[in-house]
Amino acid sequence: MSFPNITDLRLNRGNFGTANDWKFVTVPQADAGNRTQAQIQARVLGGGSAINSGMYLRGNKAEYDALEILGATGWNWNSMFSAVKKSEHFFLPSQSDIHALEPTYNPEFHGFSGPIALSIQAQNVSGFFREYAVPTLHALGHELNFDPNGGRHNGASWDFLTALLDTSTRSYAVSGYYLPVANRTNLVLKTSSHVSRILWTEEKTKDGLLSATGVEYLTLNDAGESTGAHVLRAKNVILSGGTLNTPKVLELSGVGDPTVLEKVGINVKINLPGVGANLCNQPLTTASFLLKNGTVDAGNAIRSAIIDVEPFSKYLTGADLERSKNMLSTPPTGLSTPQFNIMKDFILNTDVPQMEFAWNIAADTNNVSTLTFDRIILLKPLSRGLVHINSTNPLDPPVIDPRYLNAPHDKFTFAKAVEYTRKIVSTEPLRSIIEGPVLPGNNVNTEADFIDYVNTQSQSDEV
Hints:
The chain is an alpha+beta fold. It contains eleven helices and 20 strands. α10 crosses α11 (447-457).
């Protein structure tokens, strides 16, 4: 079995759909063209940090504080800001990078002695971004954020990467946390092993609780087939299977919604209906425009050099904002009232960003350059779905139904974001070097056209 390159960030998408990926697929998405969609989730040591794009951008302070409002005591911006700074080793831009790109940052927002390398992407970045992108964003009224990692990430900023300075070498959980302690005698790492269920005490405590006593796991051969079941006894069990595998292991262990468990013949150990519910992932799409021949040097950047994150008020018209408000008068299906109220408040009463536009530029073998917004992402979708088991075989994939674009507000604002890229490229100085649209093409013009585009051309963001 061959495994693609993990350490080179330029090759991260080469891991998708390979042995380093669970290769999960959704059920047909009724509100997104009735298409199935790949759900990228790493099946490799280091998890998502091993195959993701390496882009690093902290959320808004209000988003972290909302965790505590919803009941996660102690989880707020202040506590998490301190923790994430401890995890990073920020490398200041080199003098050549400063001269080439003029990147900005605030050292107070970063750590300098943690295990995960962080740097600003400046190597081989095209002059297009300084000469055209930034002035165009200013003309549109978008701010240039000095450093988006201090609790307010609004506006455009240079791309921070979990990579060693001036390289494409990935810094991730394995290089930062595992390898430095891999030789410890009290640490045993079992690879090619698949957890099948958590083991519990026979009797509940007086509070009606169960205690985990260990896990059952399967050893696997190179074909991914089980070669036997084993039991590992432990005083403590930490379940960290990711968005899609964690509910699967819980349900196989008898924890979840009784209607789901009883359907496949699993005895209910703990009645917890929320397991597998509230599934949410960000939909992503792209838009691209041909540049006039010979106007810019495309460079050779690792990722999108500029990330622009904005509230709806920055790209929706006044009339569209009123339509957004009216849509929010009806809560979407599957989203709890406390969550909905917080998200509605973010949209209507704050400037918490809701949409991401990642700017990228590349040239083909004929040196024809294209500007691509390669990550147009609805950051806080209201649509909620489900992930559940449908068999007792731990090697079977879960049934995944994110219900993408099920909430009408999601589809409306997502389509409007794609339409807004036309306004971006129609604004000077960018307008002067635009030849025309590539995707979506000139045949996409009306609101219905753009809605059809996101229905048929959107995909799942990385899980």
